[in-house]
């Protein structure tokens, strides 16, 4: 869903990926304009274990904004915890950082790297979905069927352009029962007809409700304040799924900086952190 609002000569495009709250326990907001990209994310990651009938939940704090080479990722969905976070989790073998590392190998342009990343991620998500279907059919239907089960945002500078991409993965079940994925793609520049873009991903109900009432909020508020305020809205509205603190990253053509972060978010590196042993601490 794309909503455009025009005031004077400025056009702001608000892209809403409407995701069911049963699938995502994360709130991420990204704003792009001519000069910068600002990304903010909450810190609460829900861990799900499958019992005989329903998913039992716990949570841990995570840094959801991850550096990979010269780009930064934020991700949410029914996968990506990894074995270090929770023994017996739905997807104990799936580590999003490792998937990103594989997808970003080489010196290709970001568009080509993302195509490779899509293929790798589809393979992992297919294994996770099939395991859920075999182990607990009710849980599989609740968490994987008719929902976008994973989304990631990528931001950075490519060929002197501020690039903001989103990829969503929705499970498709064929009449024969085989699993595949429908991938939603949005890239700016490219798919946006304005440099002013706001993306909401994951838990967005409180954000959308607020912006419907406060129609000029994005025009009157600087990106850093807007990102912080919108994620805080979801934390207040959905404390069971979205939690503090809010981490905020700012990207410009001349560099990247943390505006605010918790200790789990590593220092920004001048080169790829994919081979850095410290990066083992940042599994989405």
Question: Could you please describe the fold and organization of this structure?
Answer:
With 284 residues, this protein is of the alpha+beta class. The chain has one domain (2-53, 106-261). The protein is built from six helices and 14 strands. It has a seven-stranded mixed sheet with strand order 1-2-12-3-4-13-14, with helices on one face. A five-stranded antiparallel sheet has the order 7-8-9-10-11. It has a two-stranded antiparallel ribbon with strand order 5-6. Helix 1 packs antiparallel against helix 2 and helix 4 (205-213) crosses helix 6 (223-237). The longest helix has 26 residues, at 110-135. It is globular. The two termini are 26 Å apart.
Number of helical segments? 6
Structural class: alpha+beta
Helix fraction? 10-25%
Q: Tell me the major beta sheet.
A: 7 strands, mixed
Number of distinct beta strands: 14
Give the DSSP E fraction (strand runs of 2 or more residues): 35-45%
Return the domain count. 1
The ordered string of helix (H) and strand (E) elements is: EEEEEEEEHHHEEEEHHHEE
Q: Termini separation (Å)?
A: 26 Å
Tell me, what's the shape?
globular
Q: Average pLDDT value?
A: 78
Across the major sheet, the strand order is: 1-2-12-3-4-13-14
Question: From the alpha-carbon coordinates, what is the Rg to the nearest angstrom?
Answer: 18 Å
Low-pLDDT runs of 5+ residues are 1-11, 16-23, 50-56, 80-93, 272-284
